[in-house]
Every structure is written in C-alpha cells, then in structure tokens.
Design goal:
The chain is α+β, with helices and mostly antiparallel strands. The chain folds into 2 domains: about 400 residues, no CATH class; about 110 residues, Immunoglobulin-like, CATH 2.60.40. Helix content is about 50%, strand content about 5%. Helix 7 runs antiparallel to helix 8 and helix 9 packs antiparallel against helix 13. The longest helix has 29 residues. It is globular.
Length: about 550
C-alpha cells in the first residue's frame, strides 16, 4: 500500500480545524444555522415536513408548522433529525435574541446566554453532536477530493495529495464543516458523483453498475438541495458525450436518469402540489433587499491580506496550467479537462444567477465545485514547481497552509466570536431541553386549575412555589400526548412569567391546537449568572387542558 503522508496530514488538519471552529463558534452563528436547526427539530419533534413561510394559514394549519428553510429538500434534515432522536433530544428547542450591535462593531448576530460559557450546559452538547456530523461529512468530502485527483491525474499522485491538503486548510471550509448547513452534504455528493462521472468519461463507457450508482448519487443530491440540478446537468452532459461515441451506453444512461427520477419524484410531486413548482423555488425566502446596496463588500477591505495571499497562489496555479498546455515541457492536463471546467462553470454561473442579491458574497455556495477547482489548482502548482526547481527546504512548504489556518482560527476568528462579547439577559439560554418532563416529585404546585371542559378563553393559571425567591421567573411549556411541543413561553415568545399567576395572552393561547389535549407545565428559569442549571430548577406536574376555537 502506497504511503500518503500528505493525505493523512490533510485529514488530521481537517479534524483539528473543523473541531476547533465547532468549539469556538457560539450557538447558531453559522449562516442560517438556527433555521437549519429548526427544520431538523421540527422533523424530529413532529415527524412531519414543515411548511414554507406564508403557507400555513391558507392550508388551515398552525403557524408553528412553518419554517424559513422548508423549501429545501429533506435528506440532510432527516439525518440531523435521526441524531436528535438517537440522543433523545427531540424536545430540545433553539432560541435566539438579535444582537443590536451586529454589523456595528460586533461580528455576532445573536446574544448568547450563560449556558454557552464554561461549564457548558448539557443541552449545548446536542448542538455539538449535530455539528460533528458536519465534521464527518467533511472527512468524506476530502476523501472524494483526493479520489478525484487520482482519477484525473493518475500519473501524478502528488496532485491529489496537494489538492486535499489545500482544501482541508481553507478557513471557510473548516468553518462551514463546523456548523449546520445542507451545503456540506451536497458538496460530498457532488464530488463523489463527479469521481464516478470522470471514470466513465475517461473510459468512454457506462456500465450498468456505474449507471445505478450514478442514479442513486444524483437522486440523493436532488433530495439534499435544489442546486444539485447543476450536478444533474453535468451528468447529462457526460451521458450525451459517452452515448455519441458508444450507442449501447444509451440504456445504462437511461437507467441512471430513471433511478434519479424515482428517488426524487415524491419530493417533486410534494412541491408541485403544495407550492406549484417542483423545486419549490416559489416558496423560497430570498432574504434579500432591493437594489445594489444589498451587496456588502467590506470583507475586501477587512480581509485584504488573506485575499491577496489567496489571489497570489491562484495566479500561480493558472500560470502552471498554461505551462501544462503551452510550455516547453508540456504535460497532459487533468483529464477530462472539459468535464472539470464544465462543473466549475455550471456551479459558478448557477450560484450567481440564483443568489444575485445576497447580503454578502455567497462564496460558501460554490463549495460543490471545490473538488475540480482544487484539482486544477494543485495540478498547476505542481507543474509550475517542476519547472522552477526550489531548494530542498521547499518541501517544508506543506506547513504553510496549516500555519495560516491556525492563525486564522485562533488569531482572527476566536477573538471576534467569543460568546461573552454579546451577553444575553442572565436567564436566557440558546438551547433548552428536557421539556417533556414527567417529574414524579414536582416542586411547584398548581393552586387552581381550569375545569376539564374545553376552553374558549385563555385560562388564569395559579401556582405555589415554596422555594421561590423575591424575583423568580418561569417559563410555561405546552406539549401533547405524542410529544409535540406547542409552546415554550419564554424561549419562543419572550413571555417571562413571574409572581404566582398568569392569564395567557390571546396571541399565545391561539397557538395551541384545538383537535387535541395539551399538557401545560411550568418550570423555573435558571439564572446563569449565579450558576443555576436547568436540571436543578423546580417544575410543576403536567396540567391537561383543551382549547376550542371561538364560535
């Protein structure tokens, strides 16, 4: 077995840096991370797909069925939901408070509670477990990048090694694979599919076994994100190119497309019947503002050093590729060169077309093309290095990418993104679990309870907490017999209860369902500033009520 020290170095760097960002990134500070979590949590807690924003009312559904990213396909979120179910954390809700200083000197979008500071609350490990799935997806993606380098440059194995190392040490790669985003899964599927397509294109043959594998990979990609349609376009290009040269490949190509269609047909039909478009693009929340002012190019100024370093090495790679083709010591370019370029062009143009008004340049959306980009860049650098021999010490340049990534994590990122830089109120927590509690020895007693008859108006709840201090605060939870959570008053609505009674506001009361009983449970909110923990706080026994719609 051939030793591949650079490959092992790349995998070690990825695990170290991605885990470092996982631990250094406060809760939900990844792009749209709270929305990704809410989608997965809704799937785990209810067992149903959420609705896009604005679709609940016309369908007669609860607004609690809506999620911002509901237009996305469900595969990635099903994986996260499986982790939540396995960890018995289907009742762990996420909560966010906007940071008023975000964009005005603070890099943190949200305020962060004491549950995120050492020693972290037990609920924080739920998010860490979900994030670690991203780390593992990154390992598989790097192996796919390495394999892509091997099949496109079989005579120069160092290209695959260098491509993998460079990707593993990209700060944005490490950060993205430390947070929740379906881009991580689509990147893996895109790169793995491209490996199979390259092998088929090089052999100018499409066997039935490879066609079945391609059909499955393409179908899974379409079940992950709508942007995988670019990958399907690449696949069809390869199928057409092979079929023109070998007519008998038409049957395997058709089988691959049929498998792809069969896998994603239920999702496409669901989107068509619900949103009127198979890819649910009409239901997408663009999250944009009108006009060119939506662009924020301040990163060009703030990160100028990193950008110029990257531009310098990218320029060297391009020079090396030209030397590959037109220099005196010509060598074969990575093959099939046209397929690598077509993959890059489709992803780049497709991203530019679908995200024209992003609040920041959506570079992370280009990662599906990281494999071909890395292989082409590595091939150019390796060829250029062969043309311009350097001293033996140059082999130590393999330490430069890890050193830059190390500085970026601990010298630039960590000081700006520490949770203590945006403190939340002392009782706030970004993750709260243990809502489905069956405490046999409740510390809070209900003093008066509503009748067993269904209620039209919000009830007045009264309780007695013998351990209550002068300024005790509570959160009211509501869940049904199936374990679906309908209310977390403080975490979801900033309704912080105090004293010994409350009449629920109509806006909160009307969120409860009318077709089933719900169990109300009161829990004292911990004060993180004095070291209180959620699992220590008094809780009431469940109180069964049923709401009926007003006549």
């Amino acid at each position: 077995m051939t030793r591949r020290p650079l490959l092992w170095l790349a995998l070690a760097c990825h695990l170290f840096f991605a885990t470092g960002y996982l631990l250094q990134t406060p809760s939900f500070e990844g792009p749209d991370e709270i929305a990704h979590y809410q989608y997965a949590w809704h799937l785990a807690n209810t067992g149903e797909l959420p609705l896009a924003v604005g679709y609940a009312y016309p369908l007669g559904r609860s607004p609690l069925d809506e999620e911002v990213l509901a237009h996305h396909p469900p595969l990635y979120y099903a994986m996260l939901a499986a982790v939540l179910v396995a960890a018995d954390a289907t009742d762990t809700i996420g909560s966010t408070l906007p940071n008023p200083e975000f964009g005005r000197g603070s890099a943190l979008r949200w305020l962060h509670g004491g549950d995120e500071l050492p020693p972290r609350a037990v609920d924080q490990f739920v998010l860490s477990a979900l994030r670690f799935l991203s780390v593992l997806l990154g390992v598989l993606s790097l192996l796919a990048v390495h394999r892509l380098g091997q099949v496109t440059c079989p005579e120069r194995p160092v290209v695959a090694d260098l491509a993998t190392l460079v990707v593993a040490c990209l700060p944005m790669w490490s950060f993205q694979h430390a947070v929740l985003t379906n881009d991580n899964l689509v990147t893996l599927l895109f790169t793995a599919t491209l490996v199979v397509l390259v092998r088929a294109a090089r052999r100018r043959n499409l066997s039935m076994e490879r066609a079945v594998l391609l059909g499955v990979l393409l179908g899974l990609a379409m079940l992950t994100k709508a942007s995988a349609v670019f990958l399907v376009a690449v696949g069809m290009l390869v199928f057409a190119w092979i079929v023109v040269r070998q007519r008998r490949a038409a049957v395997p190509a058709a089988v691959a497309l049929l498998i792809t269609g069969a896998l994603c047909a239920p999702m496409l039909w669901h989107n068509w019947t619900l949103y009127g478009a198979p890819l649910a693009l009409r239901a997408r929340d663009p999250g944009s503002v009108d006009g060119a002012a939506a662009y924020d190019w301040s990163w060009l100024r703030d990160d100028a050093a990193v950008i110029w370093i990257g531009a310098f090495f990218a320029g060297l790679a391009i020079v090396g590729l030209f030397a590959h083709r037109f220099g005196r010591q010509r060598q074969t370019l990575p093959q099939p060169f046209w397929l690598l370029i077509a993959s890059c062009v489709l992803v780049f143009t497709g991203t530019a077309w679908s995200s024209p008004w992003a609040l920041q340049p959506p570079v992370r959306l280009l990662f599906p093309a990281i494999g071909p980009v890395a292989v082409l860049a590595a091939a150019g650098l390796v060829h250029l290095g062969a043309l311009v021999p350097l001293p033996a010490a140059a082999r130590w340049l393999c330490v430069v990418p890890p050193a830059v990534a190390l500085w970026f994590l601990f010298g630039w990122f960590a000081p700006q993104f520490h949770a203590s830089l945006a403190p939340a109120p002392p009782r706030f927590a970004t993750l709260v679990g243990g809502i489905l509690s069956e405490d046999s020895d409740p510390g809070i007693a209900w003093v008066s309870t509503p009748s067993d008859a269904p209620l039209v108006a919000p009830p007045t709840l009264r309780w007695h907490d013998p351990a209550a201090g002068q300024n005790e605060h509570y959160s009211l939870y509501a869940y049904d017999d199936d374990g679906r959570i309908w209310l977390a008053s403080y975490e979801q609505h900033q309704l912080e209860l105090s004293g010994d009674s409350v009449t629920l506001p109509d806006a909160v009361w009307t969120l409860l369902p009318t077709d089933r009983d719900v169990l109300l449970q009161l829990r004292c909110i911990p004060d993180w500033s004095v070291g209180e923990r959620r699992e220590w706080m008094p809780i009431s026994a469940p109180l069964r009520v049923r709401r009926v719609a007003a006549p």
